[in-house]
Write a structure and sequence with these properties.
Layout (H helix, E strand, L loop, with lengths): L1 H4 L22 E7 L15 E7 L7 E5 L5 E6 L6 E7 L9 H8 L3 E6 L5 H4 L4 H13 L3 E11 L1 H12 L7 E5 L13 H4 L1 H5 L5 E2 L5 E2 L24 E6 L7 H15 L5 E6 L16 E5 L6 E5 L4 H23 L12
Parallel strand pairs: 5-6, 5-7, 7-8, 8-11, 11-12
Antiparallel strand pairs: 1-2, 3-4, 4-6, 9-10, 13-14
Family: Belongs to the C/M/P thioester hydrolase family.
Pfam families: BAAT_C, Bile_Hydr_Trans
Organism: Salmo trutta
């Protein structure tokens, strides 16, 4: 898998590219060729000694893809093969926005009904109306789906999606996940009831002056969340968590203060007496973009801070080999965590809706 994790854009490519598969129902096709001697460019002009084509699928045979547009919610639900009911996962990515499906497709390939949720929209006017209740509605849509076990739902979030996950688990009076997974996230950004996502970003806007550039003019954003506030009203009070929580942290995360946030959450939960609910995976040399394994490591790429603004190059961090190791190890442990808390004693789900 090192051949895939170490892939780079060809010389002369546009600066700041990030490899992400968009059409999950078709495979990622990889051409692997061996040449005489060591080469860094000019592959197309040379004759390969031997070549092979591999296909990497994100949807296992029988996995179904369902567009979700009900109740104002936009997302994609992936269902495993079989009659169900299946344990469910609400899957939320970070500040890049859009509808990102490949992790949800993989989760469905492992037996979970996973809904990739679009909650950050490029249209600024629409983005201002999306908030806490939108996420609650998405959770209930997943919960009420006929093939989903309504009492076996988890929240999974990356980056800002982790903040949303923690906020929903602590602040919502109606949404009660059975467990939560937070990747490269922080409890400093909060999303409270009757609050829009745009309002929750105010904390970072107020501290954007703390961001800095590296020697390649890539933005390092992690300092915008530092120092971690001591006042519990200025962060998600994880001492109120009532379900198991898995934190995944890269120690070379240059985008968010995930390490410091994890340390503070550990202390908060210990003081509250619920530290038995917390599991933390912390990886030396791993950056911010901890994704499902065996894809090319992205240390930096272009990013839009706000809709309509100019693109910048954001530094995510991580070294290729330790980052690849972190992705492989964390993915297996995330799947194990979800199975442990969602897949025991799944009860038949009776649903009157068609």
């Amino acid at each position: 898998m090192g051949l895939l994790a170490s892939m780079r854009p060809i010389p002369g490519s546009r600066t700041g590219l990030r490899f992400r598969i968009k059409e999950v129902h078709t495979p990622m096709v990889v051409h692997i060729s061996v040449y005489s001697g060591h080469m860094s460019q000019g592959f197309r002009e040379q004759v390969a000694l031997v070549s092979v084509v591999t296909e990497r699928w994100y949807m296992a045979p029988g996995v179904r893809r369902v567009d979700i547009t009900e109740g104002g919610v936009t997302g994609t639900l992936f269902l495993p093969p079989g009659p169900g009911p299946f344990p469910g996962v609400l899957d939320m990515w970070g500040g890049g926005g859009g509808l990102v499906e490949y992790r949800a497709a993989l989760l469905a390939s492992h037996g979970f009904a996973a809904m990739a949720l679009m909650y950050l929209f490029p249209d600024a006017q629409k983005a201002a109306t999306i908030g806490f209740h939108y996420i609650e509605n998405a959770f209930r849509l997943l919960q009420d789906y006929p093939l989903v076990a309504s009492d076996k739902i988890a929240l999974l979030g990356t980056s800002f999606g982790a903040s949303v996950t923690l906020s929903l688990a602590v602040f919502s009076e109606t949404v009660k996940p059975l467990c939560c997974v937070c990747i490269s996230g922080s409890h400093v950004l909060t999303l409270k009831a009757n609050q829009s996502i745009a309002e929750s970003f105010k904390v970072m806007k107020e501290h954007v002056h703390k961001s800095r550039m590296d020697e390649n003019n890539c933005i390092i954003w992690r300092d915008t969340l530092l120092p971690i506030p001591e006042d519990s009203d200025l962060k998600v009070d994880v001492g109120r968590m009532t379900c198991p929580l898995l934190l995944v942290v890269g120690q070379d995360d240059t985008n968010w203060a995930a390490v410091e946030s994890a340390d503070d959450m550990t202390q908060m939960m210990a003081r509250a007496g619920n530290s038995h609910l917390l599991t933390t995976l912390s990886y030396p040399g791993a950056g911010h973009l901890i994704e499902p394994p065996y894809g090319p490591h992205c240390r930096a790429c272009t990013f839009v801070l706000q809709p309509g603004q100019q693109r910048v190059v954001m530094l995510w961090g991580g070294l290729t080999k330790p980052h690849a190791v972190a992705q492989e190890d964390s993915w297996e442990k995330i799947l194990g965590f979800l199975r442990e808390h969602l897949c025991h004693s799944v009860k038949p789900h009776v649903q009157s809706r068609l």
